Each structure stands twice: as structure tokens, then as C-alpha cells.
Amino acid sequence: METVLSGIRSTGNLHLGNYFGAIRNFIRMQHEHNCYFFIADYHSLTTHPTPENLHNNVKQVLVEYLAAGLDPEIATLYVQSDVPEVAELYLLLNMNAYMGELERCTTFKDKARSQPNNINAGLLTYPVLMAADIIIHKATKVPVGKDQEQHLEMARTFANRFNRLYNVNYFIEPVAYNFGDDLIKIPGLDGSTKMGKSESEGNAVFLADEPEVIRKKVMRAVSDAGPQTPNQPKAQSIENLFNIMKVVSTKDTIKHFEDAYNNCTIRYGDMKKQLAEDIIAFTTPLREKILEFASDNEYLKKVAKMGAEKARESASKTVREVREIIGFKPF
Ligand code: TYM
Predict the structure, then answer these.
(1) 175-177 and 141-143: which strand pairing?
(2) Which of 59, 138, 141, 197 is catalytic?
(3) 148 Cβ inside 6 Å of ligand 1
(4) Which of 194, 273, 289, 317 is catalytic?
(5) Is residue 200 part of a domain?
(6) Which one of 66, 87, 282, 319 counts the least CB within 10 Å of its CB?
(7) Are residues 35 and 178 in the same domain?
(8) Residue 154: is it exposed, middle or buried by C-beta count within 10 angstroms (0-12/13-18/19+)?
């Protein structure tokens, strides 16, 4: 049995990218492995949420995890800030994380570009906190989307560096994982290659979106004038629509539109209509469960408490041992 861990930053509603990149894999793995799934609320502080937003966002992710089928009786489902041992390990790992490597991280460079007035130290050391999240439970597999690949590589670097520095074989190097397949990236509806929480309006379809909202977003998705010659390569925006279809539609539907594209008879209006209905069929049961869980605060409280206790047990053991390895000793 392996230890599997993954987390999602609590900065807003979850979208199809989060579901297919990460959550779907958690759900498939929870019955066979020792699984930890958490809500990365310390990480969300890099964008300075108000206290009210902070709490509501954590609640929303918890509700969406449960709605998607994470079973808190089987897996350890917890809120990051309920496990302060993570913050201590983060501090300790920071001493061996270097400016140069952190500055070279692609997500840091992207954030520095997109929020030039708020390039805080938390953003720079984001991968260190993420490494602490993972190695504190000695996780070996981390189900994530393709965008997190570099962070996982950095987690391996920090784990390995700790081992070498103290001449121990203590931390295990974790790998990014997608249930045996390549890591995936669900594209946005705005023609960009990534669906994301903080991208432009209309980029993402959220799991909690009402059918009418989904129809509007999909019908407005970027497309083009259509192929002029048979079998011509697809423009990025069209490739995106097909890639979203691949996760929500049947093989027959995909083949129908692939054939129509290749013989130049495709009508993107029809394709988008079908895509919207397939997304709605997929999200409707989720949305119904989201509404149910959101109104059950007693249950959410119970789940968070149970998860925090289980996660702290494992995390405090690691921090105790790490302190010993580093040389902190009681008088
Ligand atoms: P976050 O919150 O940006 O995304 C959560 C998960 O969703 C995946 N994802 C996608 N997958 C495919 N296509 C997309 N368009 C797409 N958008 C998002 C992400 O790859 C991720 O798996 N740093 C992490 C949160 C985190 C974490 C961790 C993850 C903190 N500590 C430890 C794993 C282990 C993040 O910001 O993910």
C-alpha cells in the first residue's frame, strides 16, 4: 500500500481541470491506498483573501471534495492550517531552499508577471510549503495535473537534499501521478491552454455552475471559421474544444465531430451545443451533492475534525523525527 497525497488551493470554486487533473484520481485511489487529501489554505494567503473569503473558500473546497466522492471515513481529508506541523517543516526546509532555484520556478515567474504589485515571499517559497505538505506524510504518489510537475520535481529536490545534508535516508522522493497515464492539462474555453481559477472570465467551467451558465460559457468559447481543407491541423482553440470533449463525451460523439472536422462539414455551434450538454450531464449530479453538503455544517465540522486528528498524528511524528535529525535536543 502506498501513501498518496494531494491538495487543492482554496482560492475559489473548483473547475473541470481540478476534477480531471486531480480529484478523479484521488477517488480512484482512496480504496487501495493510504490517502491524504487536503485543502491548501495557507497557500491561498499569497493572494490576501479577506477572513470571510478565506473561510468560505475552504468550506467550498471541502464541500466539493465530498460531493465528488471523497470518503472521509476511508481517506484522511483535512484542512492544511489545522495541521500547524506543516508550517514548522516548511520553516525547516526553507533553510535549504535557494533563491536561485525558487526564482527559476515557472509558476513563480508567471505569478510575478500577473501580480507585479504583490510578489511576496510566500509566492517565492510556495514550492517549499508544497514539498512540506507532501513529505510530512512520506507520500510517494501525488495525483496532480501537468501544471504541478515542476513543483513535484522541487519536492524531490528538497527531500533528497535533506537526506544528503544529514546523511539519512529519511524522506521519500514523491512523484506526480495520473493513474498510470500521462499528466493532463484541461484547456480553457477562452482559447488558452489551461483552465484555471484565476484566468479570464469564461475560461473555466465550475463544478457548481448552473446548466444555463454552462451553456452560455460553452457557446461563447473561442472557435474559428472552420477547416478549409480536409484533415488540416486544428487551431489551438479548436483542439481545446476536442480535448474537453475527450473527458466528458462518449467515443461516438468525439468520432462524429472528428470526422466532421476532417471532411470540413463541422459546425462549431452544433459541437458546442453537444459539449455543453455533455458537461451538464457530468456536473449535474455533482452540483446536486454540492448543494446538499453545503447546508450540513455539522457534518462538515465533524469531517474536518476527524481529518485534522488523523493528519496531525502522522505529521507530528515526522516533525519530531526531523527535529531530532537536525539536532534539536531537550536539555
Ligand atoms: P491548484 O489549486 O492550482 O490545482 C489543484 C489541482 O488541480 C489541477 N489542475 C488541473 N489539472 C488539469 N488541467 C487543468 N487545467 C488544471 N488546473 C488545475 C492541478 O494540477 C492540481 O493538481 N500547488 C497546488 C496545491 C497544493 C498541492 C500540495 C498539490 C499545495 N500543496 C501538495 C499536491 C500536493 C495548486 O495550487 O493546485
Answers:
(1) parallel
(2) 197
(3) yes
(4) 194
(5) no
(6) 87
(7) yes
(8) buried
Q: Among the atoms of ligand 1, which is closest to the Cα of residue 147? A: 20
* 153 and 301 housed in the same domain: yes
What's the 227 CA to ligand 1 centre distance in angstroms?
A: 34
Note if 197 is an active site residue.
yes
Q: Which of 111, 138, 217, 272 is catalytic?
A: 111
* Ligand 1 close to Cβ of residue 49 (< 6 A): no
pTM score: 0.96
Q: Containing domain of residue 32, as a range?
A: 3-184+297-326
Residue among 216, 253, 223 nearest 238 (CA):
223
Is 226 in the same domain as 305? no
Measured in angstroms, how far is the CA atom of residue 145 from the centroid of ligand 1?
A: 6
**184 CB less than 6 Å from ligand 1?**
yes
Both 75 and 176 in one domain: the answer is: yes
Question: In angstroms, rounded to a whole number, what is the distance separating the alpha carbons of residues 79 and 284?
Answer: 26
Query: Residue 237 sits in a domain of what CATH number?
Result: 1.10.240.10
Whether residue 231 sits in one domain with residue 162: no
Digitized pLDDT (tens) for each residue of the chain, 331 residues in all:
899 999 999 998 999 999 999 999 989 999 999 999 999 999 999 999 999 999 999 999 999 999 999 999 999 999 999 999 999 999 999 999 999 999 999 999 999 998 999 999 999 999 999 999 999 999 999 999 999 999 999 999 999 999 999 999 999 999 999 987 899 999 999 999 999 987 778 899 999 999 999 999 999 999 988 999 999 999 999 999 999 999 999 999 999 999 999 999 999 999 999 999 999 999 999 999 999 999 999 999 999 999 999 999 999 999 999 999 999 998 9
Residues 6+ apart with CB under 8 A from 84: none
Q: In angstroms, rounded to a whole number, what is the distance separating the alpha carbons of residues 198 and 9?
A: 12
Does the residue 198 lie in any domain?
no
Please report whether residue 190 resides in a domain. no
By alpha-carbon position, which residue is closest to atom 19 of ligand 1?
Answer: 145
| Residue found by looking up cell 495520473 in the block | 178
H-run or E-run covering 3? strand 3-9
Q: Is 310 a catalytic residue?
A: no
d(CA 21, CA 207): 13
The alpha carbon of 133 and the centre of ligand 1 are apart by a number of angstroms equal to 13
Same domain, yes or no, for 164 and 247? Answer: no
CA–centroid distance, residue 170 to ligand 1 (Å) = 26
- The total number of structural domains in the chain stands at 2
